[in-house]
Specification:
Number of helices: 7
Helix content: 10-25%
CATH architecture: Alpha-Beta Complex
Structural class: alpha+beta
Shape: globular
Number of strands: 13
CATH class: Alpha Beta
CATH topology: paralog of FGE (formylglycine-generating enzyme)
Largest sheet: 5 strands, antiparallel
Length: about 325
């Protein structure tokens, strides 16, 4: 059901080095929740590998490392202070009852290219030639630059295949996840009951905080490309230090789409929190993590939300995605 090359997990420094060099990240550890162990290199996983909750694996062909997150409880949001905005300060204890997997890195141009070439999919900036919104800073912040798209994001002479893909909106991300789900099912690598999707906002923040109980990084420069050190432009994934659970660029580099709807945190204690579609008013999807353009403590914190500001049509040089693997009913 899930034939993957197996080996004990490489350290994060090795993963980062191979990603930077454009090499294939292979043979990562698969360790079951029930105590199952990875086999030696060169063997394929038993059909029950996914059912045993593989701890870490690489998606065949995409070379995208997926890391398992066990169920757990964390505090969502940020206490008042340190620049936290009002939509972050309703602290909410969230319990996630289902394991899920999340990409160790943001999706790259090279990985998106495989989808585009396999399906002929084109984003709106490609279709119209109008381009996407590029970050220019100052009072303007963004300007539309004709001819730019994920293929040519601007600000770089030659797009690096390991740059995070940008200039895709929420619907584009849904199309990618649907393609990947179908591809993996057809290949027999995805058992029934699982699907690739964007993470919910709660899943994203759970992975970002990584069990630390912290709300802000001790040293943002170590983990994030932000307005103070980025250029300002996006950088190839996995160049900064990963967080405690092995995820790169959760803060900075690019904002990341989430699956659910933006709205107030509920407060109190909730289980498997998902932002629901508002009955009226502004209806927008969640975006988390900030980007290479953000400056200051608030913009490099773990809870920064895009909020209700404009600039949310998705075709932004500062906005990309990270892929999750969830139980199918959660792929809303």
């Amino acid at each position: 059901m899930f034939p993957v090359q197996l080996r004990f997990a490489a350290p994060p420094s090795f993963i980062a080095a191979t990603l930077r060099a454009g090499l294939v990240v292979v043979a990562l550890a698969l360790v079951g929740l029930g105590g199952g162990c990875a086999s030696s290199a060169g063997n394929t996983a038993r059909p029950s590998a996914m059912e045993n909750n593989a701890k870490q694996f690489s998606i065949s062909g995409l070379n995208l490392t997926m890391i398992k997150l066990a169920p757990g409880t964390f505090t969502m949001g940020h206490p008042p202070g340190n620049g936290a905005e009002s939509d972050e300060t309703t602290l909410t204890q969230v319990t996630l009852t289902k394991a899920f997997w999340l990409g160790a890195t943001e999706l790259t141009i090279g990985q998106w290219r495989q989808f585009a070439e396999a399906t002929g999919y084109r984003t709106q900036p490609e279709k119209t030639g109008e381009g996407m919104w590029a970050w220019v800073g100052g009072t303007a912040s963004y300007e539309k630059q004709p001819g730019t798209s994920w293929r040519n994001p601007g600000r770089v002479d030659k797009p690096d295949e390991n740059l995070p893909v940008s200039g895709v909106n929420w619907d584009d991300a849904q199309a990618f996840c649907a393609w990947l789900t179908q591809r993996e099912r057809t290949a027999g690598r995805l058992p029934a009951g699982y699907a690739y999707a964007l993470p919910t906002e709660a899943q994203w923040e759970y992975a970002c905080k990584a069990g630390t109980g912290e709300f802000d990084p001790a040293n943002a420069d170590e983990i994030a490309w932000h307005g103070g050190n980025s250029g300002p432009e996006a950088h190839p994934v996995a160049q900064k230090r990963p967080n405690a659970w092995g995820f790169y660029d959760m803060v900075g580099n690019l904002w990341e789409w989430c699956q659910d709807w933006y709205g107030p945190f509920p407060g109190g204690s909730v289980t498997d929190f998902v932002g629901v579609e508002p009955a009226s008013g502004t209806k927008i999807r969640n975006i988390r993590g900030n980007s290479f353009s953000g400056t200051g403590a608030h913009n490099t914190g773990y809870t920064n939300r895009w909020g209700t500001t404009n600039n949310r049509d998705g075709y932004r040089a500062t906005l990309g995605l990270r892929v999750a693997l969830v139980t199918a009913p959660d792929a809303r």
